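Example record for the data management plan.
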Amino acid sequence: MPSFVDVDFTTQPQYVQGYTVEDVKRFQDCKSSLPKYADNFEVLSDSDLKDAAAELAKIGGNANLITRIFDQGNEGSCVGNAFTQGHQVCQARLAGKHRVIQMSAMSLYKQIGSSPNSGANIGDAMERLQDTGLLPLDTDENKRRFKHVMSHRGFRQQWPDGWKETAKLFGDCELFVAESAQEALTATARGRCVGVGRAGHSILYIDPIWDDGWAFDYANSWTEDWGFAKAGFKGGFGRDTRRLFNEACDWCVVFEGPNPEKWSWLLELAK
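Corresponding structural encoding:
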C-alpha cells in the first residue's frame, strides 16, 4: 500500500478550499438537469466489477493516459484542474497521448468561479465542458496551432478577444452524473475517470484497485512534489479506500469522452 492513502486534504499545506456547494438551489438544479449515468449504462455486479478492473489493470489503467500533473498554485481552482485533467485523459483515449492538446485549467475555472479563491461547483464545470468548452494552454506549440490560448494559473488574466471560438472546439465532451458509489465504481472499472468533490477539494479518480477490498487512485493538482509515484511521474497521485470513495461519490461526474465525429479534427491534427 503506497503512502498518501485516505488523505485529509485540509491538513495538507497545499490545501485551498475550492469545491463548494454553497448555493444549494443552484447545486440541485444543476444536478437534476444533467444526464444520468444509470440511465445510459448498465451498473455492473460485484463479480463483473472485479473482472473489469482486472482487465483495466492489465493495460496500466488510466494513469498511463495522463500527460502531466497539474499545479493549481495558491488558487482555489481545483475543480477546474480536476475537470481539465479529465478532459485531457479523454483526448488521450480517443487519439493517443501523443495527440493530447495541453489545456488551461484556468480557462475553465474563470467560467465557474467568481474570484481566485471562491471555489466552484462540479456541476457547473460539467455544463461548461459540454457547451462552452475551454482553451488550450499558453505554450509555443499551441500558439502556432490556435488563435486563443490561456495560462494555467492567474484568475485575474483577461479573456482574449473572441476566445469562445477556440474554446468551442473543445466542447461537446460527453459527461454523465453518477448518483451512487456503485455507479462510479462501474465507470472506473470500465476505464472512465470520475470527477468528485471531497472535503472542499476536487480530484479525478482514475483507476480502481482490487486487493481484498476496493481502493481508488486519483490524480491531484498539487504538482509532482505531492503524492506517490505512478505512470512515470515522480508524484501527483493519491489513493482513497472504499469509505472515502463512497462519501465522495454520492454524486459525481463520469468522463465518457469526446464525441468522435465532432472531434475528428484532433485525429487529423497530428498526422
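Summary line stored alongside the record: The chain has a mean pLDDT of 92.
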